[in-house]
Amino acid sequence: MEREEYLAAIKPRMPEKRYIHTIGVMETAIALAKVFGENEKNAEIAAILHDIAKYADIAWMEKIVRDEKLDHRLIGWGSELLHGPVGAYIAEHEFGIVEEDILNAIRFHTTGRVGMSRLEKILFVADMIEPNRKFNGVERLRKKAQKNLDKAVSACVRHTLAFLIDTKQPIYPLSIDCYNDLMKREDSEG
Ligand SMILES: Nc1ncnc2c1ncn2[C@@H]1O[C@H](COP(=O)(O)OP(=O)(O)O)[C@@H](O)[C@H]1O
Question: How far is the CA of 160 from the centre of ligand 1 (A)?
């Protein structure tokens, strides 16, 4: 499928604001793919589809988690945490995406995980720094992303965890595992 077909397919499934965010993620992911030598088409597809499940019915998404034997801990977390894994399911079953790397990028774009691929890192960072995002510190993350993808991932994970703690929200453990792994690596690199 071409870019315009993907965009036409996702547009009716989300509010205008989310669609504009998606375009921003797509442009940012392609730009990062150019900088870091990743496949641009894969970055484009992963970005366009990353929020495809954001507004899907929660009960339906939880059924997918049970039927597909996805991480059972996802049950009860709501769309924020379900839409990545279920988005990957939709990308595979409805859009016929077979590249595991694209599916994983969609699957883990909210939480990150231990051992992310370059494409996963690109989508994870692009989702946080796309031009429509406005929060304290986003400019610093944008600058980092131009220089060092791993450092940008680390800064994004730390930003999200700090935000969740500050706002007294529970933390789904995949991000903690991701954080621990990143910090151990940074420590051993000095
Ligand atoms: N490990 C986690 N536990 C709980 N909430 C999380 C976790 N990681 C991210 N979130 C929250 O999930 C929400 C959705 O994140 P994300 O998918 O990146 O955004 P968007 O869907 O807007 O692209 C954000 O509010 C973020 O803070």
Answer: 8
Cα–Cα–Cα angle for 132, 48, 85, nearest 5°?
105
Q: Are 111 and 128 in contact (CB under 8 A)?
A: no
Hey, what domains does the chain have and what are their CATH numbers? 3-189 (1.10.3210.10)
Residue ID of nearest Cα to ligand 1 atom 18: 110
pTM for the predicted model, two decimal places:
0.97
Nearest to 152 by CA among 127, 175, 133, 169: 127
| Ligand 1 site residues, Cβ closer than 6 angstroms | 51, 54, 80-81, 109-111, 127, 160, 163-164, 171-172, 175
Average pLDDT over residues 15-42: 98
List the end-to-end C-alpha distance of the chain, in Å, as a whole number: 45
Q: Which amino acid is at 188?
A: S
DSSP annotation string for 74-114:
GTTS-HHHHHHHHHHHHHHHTT----HHHHHHHHTTTT--T
pLDDT level of residue 78 (50, 70, 90 thresholds):
very high
User: How many degrees, rounded to 5, is the angle at CA 59 between CA 19 and CA 18?
Assistant: 10
Mean predicted confidence (pLDDT) in 52-65: 98
Q: Which residue, by CA, sits nearest to atom 22 of ligand 1?
A: 127
* Predicted pLDDT of residue 97: 98
